[in-house]
Specification:
By secondary structure, this protein is α+β, with helices and mostly antiparallel strands. 27% of the residues lie in helices and 25% in strands. The longest helix has 13 residues, at 316-328. The radius of gyration is 25 Å and the shape is globular.
Length: 611
C-alpha cells in the first residue's frame, strides 16, 4: 500500500477524489473554512499548491467521506477487522474461525509489527514557524496542528510496542510560547498522561515526538482506542498494509514515513493554551496546559502538510468516529460482558450523550411485566469506567430482553422512544455529581468537573408517546416561554423568550406548573428548554433531530439543569413525575458558539468554485 502521504493523494487524484487548488490561499481562517465547506458539500480531498507565507503544500478533507475512507484502505480493511476481532477475543475467535481465517489473522498480525528503518539523513530541518500557520476560528489563540500523531513512551528504555500514539492538539504559535515551544493539550483519561506522570515521578522530562502526515493509516491509528494487547503502531501496519517504519534519534522516536516530525521534551511547568474552536461546536477556553520545549523539527524535502478543521458536527472527525465504531465494535462486549451495542452520538458532541443496549438477566425468572433495571445499573457503572465511554455525560441504557427486533442504539429516535416509553422517573434516574467530565465540556461547575445522569429502562411500556402538533394547542406556557415544537416522538423543545433576562433556575418552576395539568404530559416525557426553536419542526426530520441533540446535550449539566414535576428525594434518590425538563439555555459559564464572518465564507466558496 502507500509508502507516504503523497502516494495516497496521487491515488485519490487518479480516482477523481482529489482536486488541486492552484491559487494562493490564506492560512488565517480561509483554509479552514474551505476545508469545512468541502466536507459539508461531500466534496473531494483538496491539495493546496500555494499557501500564503509558507513553502509547503497542504492537504485537507482526505478522510471527508466514508467512500474515500474505504477507498484508501480497500485492500486491508477486511483483514484489519479480522485481526482486531482476534486480538479482542482470541478464545471466541478460535471457536468460530476456520483454518484459513486463523492463518490470515496470524499473518496480518505478524506482518504488521513496527520495523526499524530509515535515518535522520532522510529529513531536512525546519522550524515551527515554517509550518503552515493555520488558524481555524477568529478567536483561536494561534495556529494549531490538527492531525498530529503524538508518540510517547513510559520510559526511555521502553520497547517500541509500549509506544502510545494519540491525537492531542498542538498549538504552534500565539500566547506566551517562544519560537521553540508548542502547547500540548491532552485531555483527562488519555494514555500520555500515564507516561507524563511516570516521568514526573522519576524526575526526568518526558520525550515526545509529534508526527504529521505519512501513510493515511498512521493518522487513523492515532485516533483509535486500542486494547492493551494491540499497539497503535501495529494497527497502523495492519490498516496500511505496510509496517510502521521508525528509527531513534537522540532518544526520540522518529516516524520514517512522516512528512514532519516535531521532537521535544515536556517542560516542568504549564503555559496558557487555547482558545481553540473545538469539535463540540464551541470554543474551548484558555487554560494552563503542558507544553513542549522543541529540540528539532524535521521535514521531508517536498513535504505536504495535512490538516482538518473541526466545528459543530458533523465534520471530518465524524467520519473517523464512524470508522472507529466499525473497527472496534468487537472490543466492547469482550471488555464489558452483557453489552450488545454502544453509540456515542456525534450530533450531540460525542461525549455528552451515549446510548447502549445491554442485557437484563439478574432475575431471569421474573415475568416480563416485572422486569426492572438491575443488571443495567451494573453495566452503566462499567461503561462509565471504560475507555472514552467514561467521559459520557448522559448515558441511556435499554434492556436487550425488551427488544422486539428494532432496538438499535444508532437509531436515535427509536432508541429514545423505547426508553421514554418504559422509564420510571421515580426510580430510573441515577446521578453522579461532583465528578469528572470531558475537558471540552463547559456545562459543568469548572474545567473537567460536572455531573452525569444514567437513565436505565427495562420492562413493559408505561406510556404511549405521541407526535401530534395539534396537542400543543392545549399547552398553556407561562410568561417567558413560547414556540413549543416536537423534535421527535415524545420529545418537546420549548423556547425561552424572555430576551435580555439572564437564565436562572427559578425560571423553570412556572414551566413545570404549566405541564402539571397538561393532558398530554405523559405522552411527551422529555422537554428541552432552549434559546431558539425556530430551526426545529420545519419538516426536515434529520435536521430537527440534530438540532435537538446539539442544543440539549452540549448546553446542559444534569445535576444543575434537570428538573421534574413534584421533584423530591427518597433515601437521597431524586424522584420526579414526567416530564423530565432539561434547561439547555446558554448560561454565563458556557463558551461561545463558533462563527466566522460572511466575508470569509464567501471567499472560501469562491476558491472551491474555481478549483
Amino acid at each position: 500500500m502507500y509508502k507516504n502521504l503523497r502516494q495516497a493523494l496521487l491515488d485519490l487524484e487518479k480516482a477523481g477524489m482529489l482536486k488541486r487548488v492552484h491559487e494562493e490561499v490564506d492560512p488565517y481562517l480561509q483554509m479552514a473554512e474551505i476545508a469545512r465547506q468541502a466536507f459539508d458539500s461531500k466534496g473531494p480531498a483538496l491539495l493546496f499548491e500555494k499557501v500564503k507565507g509558507c513553502r509547503f503544500q497542504a492537504a485537507c478533507n482526505i478522510f471527508g467521506t466514508r467512500e474515500r475512507m474505504e477507498f484508501l484502505f480497500r485492500d486491508t480493511l477486511a483483514g484489519t477487522r479480522t485481526a482486531v476481532q482476534f486480538k479482542s477475543n482470541p478464545v471466541e475467535f478460535f471457536k468460530q474461525a476456520d483454518i484459513a481465517t486463523l492463518c490470515r489473522a496470524a499473518a496480518v498480525g505478524i506482518n504488521s509489527l513496527p520495523r526499524r528503518s530509515g535515518s535522520i539523513r532522510d529529513f531536512e530541518e525546519c522550524t515551527l514557524a515554517d509550518l503552515p500557520q493555520i488558524v481555524g476560528w477568529p478567536e483561536d489563540g494561534g495556529a494549531f496542528v490538527t492531525l498530529p500523531q503524538v508518540a510517547s513512551r513510559p520510559g526511555e528504555c521502553a520497547g517500541i510496542l509500549q509506544t502510545n500514539l494519540g491525537m492531542y492538539r498542538v498549538q504552534i504559535s500565539g500566547n506566551d510560547y517562544a519560537a521553540d515551544e508548542c502547547g500540548l493539550h491532552y485531555q483527562i483519561k488519555r494514555d500520555i498522561a500515564r507516561h507524563h506522570q511516570k516521568a514526573i515521578e522519576e524526575g526526568r522530562p518526558l520525550k515526545v515526538s509529534v508526527f504529521i502526515g505519512g501513510p493515511p493509516a498512521h493518522t487513523v491509528a492515532a485516533v483509535m482506542p486500542m486494547p492493551e494487547t494491540l499497539s497503535e503502531l501495529t494497527f497502523a501496519g495492519m490498516l496500511g498494509g505496510r509496517r510502521f517504519r521508525y528509527f531513534e534519534h537522540d532518544g526520540y522516536l522518529v516516524s520514517s514515513d512522516a512528512e514532519f516530525c516535531i521532537l521535544g521534551e515536556m517542560a516542568p511547568d504549564l503555559k496558557p493554551e487555547g482558545p481553540f474552536g473545538d469539535h463540540v461546536g464551541y470554543y474551548s477556553g484558555k487554560h494552563p496546559f503542558p507544553y513542549m520545549r522543541v529540540k528539532k523539527v524535521l521535514c521531508k524535502k517536498d513535504a505536504i502538510y495535512p490538516f482538518t478543521s473541526v466545528g459543530r458536527p458533523p465534520k471530518e472527525d465524524t467520519i473517523f468516529g464512524d470508522f472507529i465504531h466499525e473497527i472496534t465494535r468487537p472490543m466492547v462486549p469482550v471488555s464489558i460482558p452483557g453489552v450488545h451495542a454502544v453509540h456515542a452520538v456525534d450530533a450531540a458532541g460525542v461525549h455528552p450523550l451515549c446510548l447502549a443496549v445491554a442485557s437484563e438477566r439478574f432475575v431471569p425468572y421474573a415475568r416480563p411485566e416485572d422486569r426492572e433495571p438491575m443488571e443495567l445499573l451494573k453495566t452503566a457503572n462499567a461503561l462509565l469506567g471504560f475507555n472514552q465511554v467514561s467521559l459520557s455525560k448522559y448515558l441511556m441504557l435499554a434492556a436487550k430482553e425488551d427488544d422486539s427486533g428494532s432496538l438499535d442504539a444508532r437509531d436515535v429516535p427509536a432508541f429514545f422512544a423505547h426508553v421514554l416509553e418504559r422509564i420510571d422517573f421515580a426510580r430510573d434516574l441515577h446521578f453522579q455529581t461532583s465528578t469528572t467530565i470531558d475537558t471540552l465540556d463547559y456545562t459543568g461547575t469548572s474545567l473537567n468537573h460536572g455531573s452525569k445522569l444514567v437513565m436505565a429502562a427495562a420492562g413493559p411500556k408505561r406510556r404511549e408517546l405521541r407526535n401530534e402538533p395539534a396537542d400543543l394547542a392545549s399547552l398553556a406556557l407561562p410568561a417567558g416561554f413560547a414556540n413549543p415544537k416536537i423534535a421527535m416522538k415524545g420529545v418537546l423543545v420549548v423556547q425561552w423568550s424572555a430576551s435580555g433576562k439572564a437564565p436562572a433556575p427559578a425560571d423553570i418552576a412556572p414551566l413545570l406548573e404549566s405541564f402539571k395539568n397538561w393532558e398530554f404530559r405523559e405522552s411527551y416525557p422529555w422537554v428541552s428548554v432552549v434559546d431558539d426553536t425556530s430551526s426545529i419542526g420545519k419538516g426536515d426530520a434529520q435536521k430537527n433531530l440534530d438540532d435537538f441533540l446539539w442544543l440539549t446535550f452540549t448546553r446542559s449539566d444534569p445535576a444543575q439543569d434537570a428538573y421534574g414535576i413534584d421533584a423530591h428525594f427518597v433515601d437521597k434518590h431524586w424522584a420526579i413525575q414526567a416530564p423530565i425538563v432539561i434547561d439547555a439555555r446558554i448560561k454565563p459559564r458556557h463558551q461561545k458558539v463558533l462563527e466566522v464572518s460572511d466575508n470569509v465564507i464567501q471567499k472560501a466558496r469562491e476558491v472551491l468554485e474555481s478549483a
